[in-house]
Amino acid sequence: MKTLFLIALRNLALHRRRNLMLGGAIAAVTALLVFLTCLSSGVKQTMLGSALTVATGHINVGGFYKVTAGQSAPLVTDYRKIQAIVEKTLPDLDFVTARGRGWARLVSDNGNMQVGMAGVEMEHEPQLPKVLHLKEGNLADLSKPGSVLLFASQAKKLKVKTGDSLVFSVLTPRGVNNTVDVRVVGVAEDMGMLTSWNVFVPMVTLRALYQMNDDTTGALLVYLKDMKRIPQDVELLRKALSGAGYDVMDAGTSKAFWMKLQDISREEWTGQKLDLTVWEDEISFVSWSLKAIDGISFLLTSVLLVIIAVGIMNTLWIAIRERTREIGTLRAIGMQRPRVLAMFVIEAFCLGVIGTLTGAGLGSLGALGVGALHIAVPEGAQFFTMSSTLKFGFEPARILGAALIITLCTTAISLIPSLKAARMKPVTAMSHI
Amino acid sequence: MKALILSLAVLSLPLAGGLRAEALSKPKMVEILKGIDTRVKSSGDYKALVYLEQKEKDKPDVAREALVYRRDADQKLMILFTKPKTEAGKGYLRVDKNLWYYDPTVGKWERRTDRERIAGTDSRRQDFDQSDLAGEYDPAFVGDETLGKFKVWHLKLTGKPGQDLAYPVVEFWVDEATGNDLKRQDFALSGKLLRTSYVPKWEKLYSESKKAELWYRKEVRIFDEIDKANSTLVIIKAVDLSPLDANMFTKAWLESKSR
Predict the structure, then answer these.
(1) Does residue A13 surpass a pLDDT of 90?
(2) B227 neighbourhood in chain A, CB within 8 Å
(3) pLDDT tens by residue, A261-316
(4) What's the whole-number mean pLDDT along residues A370-392?
(5) Cβ–Cβ of B113/A169 closer than 8 Å?
(6) Residue scoring higher pLDDT (A282 or B218)
(7) Residue B14 pLDDT exceeds 70
(8) Taking all residues of chain A, what is their mean pLDDT, rounded to a whole number?
(9) CB–CB of A176 and B165 under 8 A?
């Protein structure tokens, strides 16, 4: 086998120009795929970061409360008992926090917008100060009733800054119009698409607005020490809550809580039902951007791979034609057909490995370089990138996976000409001019 | 000096009392509200062609036309948009206490809250429907006032206990001569003023089924008091009191209108 590798490498070196061209093409395609993979990872990391800050825990114990069959609200009543069950049930719990949920019209003197409200109790939010980067204001002031924390894009749209007054206007679960005056206590840096419509308010303000009592919240956000345990922990919670007599909704489809409101409103029941979701459910409506990037990567890579495959086949046809007499001689002195086949396949494999490794390196360096430039993304494209600047993530497994796929493809495509070379009769091959 | 001020103050008390209008008694105010409820209630069927104009800051004005169908005896209400083309076929249907919204572009019915803005304007279902002011609110007298050239009673209505009302507090200005409301202010639970409506024109027509005149607000101008730049104009262009199809207040009927 070592000899075959030596022959392959020497042959590659012998036809340097031709192989440089082909290897360069393989490297370019790999670099492109790695670059897009890093972009996809960056989007995923941004999405996860902002989602876990703004909208969701690793697991969410949410639910719906229906005063009448036609009116549902994303509420969990008597949440402290449920929190106790969560804390008792999950072995690797990091922390759990209660978050209010609301949807309101936020009005300033210069504009208005519909926003999702996250009601927080700052003393139970250890993560927020770590992940929110304030452009102005003071995050600690969010513990004061009648305050609001906006994100940069919202402040820009509403034309407000720290200290300005705003009004939240909502319809309570009982269908009564209510308002609350709030003061901007800070403006945080945008963290992707989710932060374009989510704001933070103190839980006490949210409760006053929605006329909720102290035992009611929007959802319990559960953070685990190990995200890999999410599926098992969801099942543990489902069993524990059902066992404690709570009506827990079926797992159903992967949807954010607000996307279920319409279906819930159609159902005839009244009272409380709990709903267990994971972080991916709560951002399912934005994960299409990830799928879009992955889809574009797949399409581009597929097209380029086809072109490369044609190139490899062509190169190997030429090599086989040039080396027909050599094949005949090797066969005549006893080399078996499988070894002839292996000789050509290994040559393509070596070319693939060298090309893809170079490409993976170049692609990673490119992503690193572009990421360091903090290039601003146009507003329209932010729906794809989830961030105001281009961000890249590096997942070695995904990068190596991309390189491996291209290597395997180039090797597999070389089987066709290699098989033809292996089938040659020694006499015919030796007499070839 | 002190004695002089005190004397003036004492003397001015009866004068001020004389200038202040006599407060309406509660039964009288309830009677006024019942009068409005009765006046706008149609015992038979009701069909109105409504023009809706919505003004919003930094957005082009949007004009819509809709047909409003009512059968007050059965609490039925249906709103079917006819213009512009993009809105045609969309509609609201009240079934029991639920308001359903139909959008033919997606072909789905959505259950909406009874208090939601109609087509995103500042108008609400209540603006097109019969009212039950006397049943839902407790009135209190604020004063006699003048609204333009009209002498009006200014009433403050507070939601009765146990009533979940879209606006828990409403202030009403009722024309002393006709008993029609000319101005209305709706307040949030927090006490913040949400919207002000003016009714510059009332009209009436004789209802055979009611054996009396049916009044309707010919023109209503609604101003958003939170987002000051927003306003909605509602004009009832025509009212027809002839009987409607017996089974028209159904989802199937509204759906058929968009085909």
Answers:
(1) no
(2) 105, 107, 112
(3) 878 877 888 899 999 999 888 887 777 777 777 788 788 778 877 887 887 788 77
(4) 78
(5) no
(6) B218
(7) no
(8) 87
(9) yes
Sign of the Cα torsion A188, A193, A196, A197 reads negative
Structure tokens at A366: 């490119």
* Cross-chain residue pair A167–B192, CB shorter than 8 Å: yes
Give the single-character DSSP code of A386.
Answer: S
Residues of B in contact with A169 (CB under 8 A): 188, 194, 226
Statement: residue B18 has pLDDT above 80 = no
Pair B54, B232: CB distance under 8 Å:
yes
Give the closest of B111, B114, B167 to A177, CB-based: B167
| DSSP string across chain B | -HHHHHHHHHHHHHHHHHHSPPPPPHHHHHHHHHHHHHHH--SSEEEEEEEEEEE-TTS--EEEEEEEEEEGGGTEEEEEEEESTTTTT-EEEEETTEEEEEETTTTEEEEE-TTSBGGGSS-BGGGTS---HHHHEEEEEEEEEEETTEEEEEEEEEEPTT---SSSEEEEEEETTT--EEEEEEE-TTS-EEEEEEEEEEEEEEETTTTEEEEEEEEEEEEESSSTT-EEEEEEEEEE-SPPPTT-SSHHHHHHTT-
Residue A433: pLDDT band (50, 70, 90) is low
Do B169 and B153 meet the contact criterion of CB atoms below 8 Å apart? no
Q: What single-letter amino acid sits at A342?
A: A
Answer whether B164 sits within 8 Å of A175, measured CB to CB.
yes
**B162 CA: distance to closest CA in chain A (Å):** 11
With CB atoms and an 8 Å threshold, state whether A176 touches B164: yes
A414 within 8 A of A345, measured Cβ to Cβ: yes
d(CA A74, CA B166) in angstroms, rounded, equals 20
Q: Given A68, A111, A177, which is nearest B188 (Cβ)?
A: A177
**Is A111's Cβ below 8 Å from some Cβ in B?**
yes
8 Å CB contact of A211 and B164 = no
State whether A171 and B167 contact (CB < 8 Å).
no
- Whether the bond between A202 and the residue before it is cis, its omega within 30 degrees of 0, is no
Which chain A residues are within 8 Å of B189, Cβ to Cβ? 172, 176-179, 211
Size of interface A-B (CB pairs under 8 A): 65
Rounded to two decimals, the ipTM of the complex is 0.80
Residues of A in contact with B192 (CB under 8 A): 167, 179, 181
Computed over its alpha carbons, how large is the radius of gyration of chain B? 21
Nearest alpha-carbon partner for A102 in A227, A175, A245, A201:
A201
Is the CB of B227 less than 8 angstroms away from the CB of A107?
yes
Question: Is B57 in contact with A69 (Cβ distance < 8 A)?
Answer: no
Residues from chain B that touch A174, judged by Cβ atoms under 8 A, are 164
Of A14-28, A144-158, B116-130, the range with the highest mean pLDDT is A144-158
Question: Does an H or E element contain A182, and which?
Answer: strand A177-188
Residue A76 to chain B, least CA–CA distance (Å): 20
Least confident of A50-54, A403-407, B183-187, B221-225: A50-54
